[in-house]
Each structure stands twice: as C-alpha cells, then as structure tokens.
Amino acid sequence: MNLEIDSISLDYGAGRGLDAVGFTVAPGEFVALVGPSGAGKTTLLRIIGGLARASAGHVRRDGVDLGSLPARRRNIGFVFQDYALFPHLSVAGNVAFGLKVRPRRLRPSRAERRARVAELLALVQVAELAEARPATLSGGQSQRVALARALATDPSLLLLDEPFGALDPLVRRDIRVWLRALQQRLGLTTVMVTHDRQEAMEIADRVAVLRGGKLLQIDTPAVLEAAPADAFVMRFLGETLEFPGRVEAGVFTPVSSAIAPFAAPPGRAGEAVALIRPWQVRLSPAPDGAQIDETHPAGAFHRISLTLPGTGAAFEILSPAELPTPARGQRMRIELLTPRLFTPKGEPIR
Amino acid sequence: MSRVRDRADARDWLVMAAACAIVGVLLIAPLVLVFVQAFADGWRPALEALREPETLSAIRLTLFVAVIVVAVNSVFGTIAAWLLARFDFRFKAALLTLIELPVSISPVIGGLVWLLLFGAQGWFGPWCERHGIGLMFAWPGIVLATLFVTFPYVVRTALPLLEAQGPAQEEAAVLLGAGWWSLWARVILPGMRLALLSGVLLTTARALGEFGAVAVVSGHIPGLTNTMPLEIETLYNGYRSTAAFALSATLALMALAVIALRTLIRRAGSVRA
C-alpha cells in the first residue's frame, strides 16, 4: 500500500499546525516522524488517521484521496500513546472489538472471531492473557495487546503514536526490535511518531524531521547523518559538537588553533561552523592543543573531557576504548574526521 | 495513610470524641428520632397511617415523579456531560456554571420560575389554559420542578470521569470501525457506568425528597398533588404526628436504600480498579 501525503497544511494559529508537509511512504516501508514537541508530528498522524482534518492538502492511499472517507471507514490500524485499551473488556474482547462492530453481513461468526483473536494474541506473544483485564497488564503487555487490536481488521496501514513512550528503558529496546521484525514479516506500511531521535534512527527505513509544522528533511538514517539538510537536523538527531571558524579559499580554519583545519567546498567564503558527533574525532599530542581534564570509560568508548586553550570552552568527546587514553593534563590537537559545515544561519555548505 | 505517631494520645482521643459527637448529634440522632417517633404508639398505628388513601397516593406520586425525572435527567445529563467533556465551544464555562445553578440556588426559586412561566398569571399560562394543558398544580408541574432541581447530579458525576478518561478510547473505537451506536453502547456508556449509576442514584435520592420547588407548583391537594414530603408537612400541620413520622420513616428508608446501593456500587468499582 502506497501512502501519499500531499502538501498537508493546518492552521491552528499561534504558529502551531502544519505547513505544506508532503512525502510518500512506499508499500511495506517504515517511516518515523520526529521533531521537538509542537513540531506537528502527532497532528499529522491524526490527519492521516482521519481524527483531525487538514485545512489544505490531500492524503492518498494507492492514489485514492482519503479526505472524504470518515475515520471509521479507513481501516487504518492506530496504536495510541497510552494504548487506550477498553478497561471494561478483557484482552480478547479488546482485540475482537474491530470485528464485532462490523455491519452484520461483514461480521465474522463468533467461532471465527475467537480463532482470529487467538491467532493475533499468539502473534504478539501474549496468548495466555486472553481473559485478563487491561488494568492488570504491564506496559509492554498493554502495548502488544493494543497492537493486536489494531491489526485485527487487517489494516492496510499502521500508525503508531509514541508507541514506546510509556515503557521503561529496558523493555523499550526489546519491544522495538520485536516490533520492527513483526512489521517486516507482515509487510505493513507503517508511520510512527516519536520524540526519541535514536529510536527513530534505529527502527525506521526513513526518518522525517519536522520542526514548527515544516518538514525539514526525510531520508534514510544514513543520509540524514551524512548530509543533514541544516544545522537543526544535525543537532536534533544526536549529540553534536560545534566549532566556529572561517571558510577561505577552500579551507575551513577553526577559531581555535587546537582544532585542525580541513578542506571545505571551494567557491564559498565567510563565517562558518563545523558540526560533528563526539566520536568522529581523532586526538594527537601537540603542545598548543586542548587540555585533557578527565577521562571516563563509557562502554565501547572513553568519554574524554577537554578544554580549549584561549576561549576556555569545555566539551566532551568519545574515543574508542581500544585506543590508549591520554593522561589528564596532556595537550591534544583535535582532528575532525567527518565534519559537516554550515553557515552561521544553519544552511549547509556543500 | 501515613502515621505520625504510633499511638494516639489524649488530644487525638479528644478530637475523635468530638467528631463522633458531631456525627451523632447532627446525623444519627435525627434519623433515629424519626423512627422512634413513628413507632411511639406501637407498630399498628404507624402501619395504619401508611395505609390511608391519601398517604398511599403521596407515595405513588413520589415514585411516579422520581421514575420520570431519573429517566429524563439520566439521558440528557449523560449527553450533556459528554458534549461538555469532548467539545470546546464559546460560553462553555458559562454553561458549566449554569448547570450548577440548581444546586446553589434555593429550590423555591426553581419552583417560582415555572409558576412564572406556566401559572395562571404567567407568560404561557393563559395559552395553556385555553388549550386545556394543566401544568401547574398537577403532576407535570411537579415533574418540571423536580427536573430542574436534580439536573446537575448526573452531569456533575459523569463529567469529571469523562474528562479524566480523555477521548482516546472513543477515537480508538472509531478507528476500529465503530459507528455512533456501537460507540455509545460498547465504549462510552460501559466506560462511565459506575459514575453514571452513582449520579442516577443521587438524582433518585434527591427527587424523592424534593420539597421546596415542588411545594410552589403542587397546590398541596391531598390525594392528588401531594408528594411524600408535602404530605408529611400536611399531616404534621394537622397534628397527626404519628402518621407524619411514619411517612417520614418510609421516605428516610427509601433514601437510605438508595444511598446504600450507591455505596455498594462505588465499593465494587474501587475493588475492581
């Protein structure tokens, strides 16, 4: 199933809403919508689901405009942030809901419904909970039940609103891996909203970054990392170090002499800032380098705190744990391995 | 509950004794006295008094009015609560205040308003009279007055629950294909059933005992438009104190039964949750 978001706008007033957001989701693709709160990602999801109405633009499924189709006829699976299970129904009753409310001639028989519920609960690995009440479930279990309920009517599209938001961090990762595998197996076209950039980068085929109702960039995690559309995208998607400097005659020269200059795209000149992930640097001893303040082991890395000479700016880098750690007080020159250059306004210099 | 100290000291006992005394004097003693007075001359006179045609008529009228009022206010109260919880519109705050008006305003005023509208000298009174519609000094007037007084109870018990639940369950139901009817029958009403029952029972208790508003529009015709509270007053003013207290005891028992039922339902609800 192909989903096309065609320049969707919504005016909420006060700068909130959506501004001509458009992208397409290929059949079986997993797209994550990320952005700071107020970016409009949940609003967009609700418009796709039919829970909110856009003031302009179209949502098309396989080329057919969904605009005139009410939410109840769209057959879209939706998993809510707090699951929204029906507390007065058992788990089986919750999962069977979508089958039970069908018009009589389309409604499966009681035996068929029971079989379908058993099949779905087995699929989400909570078969033993069929008779349990939602209030007695853990967060992870509720999540699986909510997913089973959303899948019961064989939806052509799955929408997930912060599906991992209420889970504790240990369960989160497991469920994430499991959900991705399930989505792949069922070939479900999926759109997920999350505020967790790392989660989005790990689970999605493509990630759409929204800010203030505008789509800044949508691409694979690798491209987003390598070529962010602007400094905001780069900053939003991960821990970022920033070094100001100047581009002149094809060379970026940092303000601090402790940072090694590197080649910049030719034909551009002026103020610029180099952005980089804390692990994309290399240290080498130099008498005028940055001073090592502290080192701490951090998993596969060493977290190293440094202070730049002159400005006194302090920051942290991650150095692979297998490399020798510099001693405290030592001075190191910093080489930026894969810097991305932006103008002071945040536009990329390529 | 957190414990500040392990054992209660003298001051704690004093406070507890004071609380017990207040509850005893203000709540329990009057109730006990009603029953004591009713049976002061023994069982027989009390039961005899209850079997008089005018008393029976008062009981019938009260139950009849209560059934209509509870039915109407449950339906409209539920719908009103849902609309108020789910939609934002202009003057919503004003409307919320207005809904609480019957609780804060004297019921006599509630009765007088109906008299002003439909009484013989009222705005629509002459029109009603010409068309043979007798609202005042008849049961429809009593129903209207009681409706006004008891309207807030269902709304005010259902609204906080609906607001706390939020619309997500209803949205989930719609996305799963539920139509309007399924939505109400399978999600909204079951989800609020305990609060709804509680509000309905509160409405019942209030409808059974309403005096002020009903007194204005009833006309006090024994055997015809006297509800139980009005009949009690009539009996008492006629120096028939045994009969008055026997009917009072009956009314009190009905109210107690309703409140006991409400407590049971709430307990059942809290155990499940």
Could you please describe the fold and organization of this structure?
The complex is a heterodimer of chains A (350) and B (273). Chain A is an alpha+beta fold and 350 residues long. Chain A folds into two domains: 3-236, P-loop containing nucleotide triphosphate hydrolases (Rossmann fold); 241-342, OB fold (Dihydrolipoamide Acetyltransferase, E2P) (Beta Barrel). Chain A contains eight helices and 19 strands. Chain A has helices at 41-49, 91-100, 110-123, 139-151, 169-186, 197-203, 221-226, 231-237; strands spanning 3-13, 16-25, 30-34, 56-61, 64-65, 76-79, 157-161, 189-193, 206-211, 214-219, 241-248, 251-254, 262-263, 270-276, 281-298, 301-307, 314-320, 331-336, 340-342. Chain A has a six-stranded mixed beta sheet with strand order 6-7-8-3-9-10, sandwiched between helices. Chain A has a five-stranded antiparallel beta sheet with strand order 13-12-11-14-19, with helices on one face. In chain A, β15 (281-298) and β16 (301-307) form a beta hairpin. The longest helix of chain A is centred in the middle third of the chain and has 18 residues, at 169-186. Chain A is elongated and about 80 Å long. With 273 residues, chain B is mainly α. Chain B has two domains: 1-38; 43-272, MetI-like fold (Orthogonal Bundle), CATH 1.10.3720. Chain B has helices spanning 10-38, 43-50, 53-86, 92-104, 107-118, 125-130, 139-165, 168-175, 180-191, 193-209, 212-218, 228-237, 241-272. Chain B is globular. Chain B starts with 9 loop residues before the first helix and ends with a helix. The mean pLDDT of chain B is 89. Chain A: This is Sulfate transport system ATP-binding protein. Chain A: One of its GO terms (biological process) is quaternary ammonium group transport.
Provide the descriptors you would attach to this structure in a database record:
heterodimer, A: 350 residues, alpha+beta, Rossmann fold, OB fold (Dihydrolipoamide Acetyltransferase, E2P), 2 domains, six-stranded mixed beta sheet, five-stranded antiparallel beta sheet, 8 helices, 24% helix, B: 273 residues, mainly alpha, MetI-like fold, 13 helices, 79% helix, 0% strand, globular
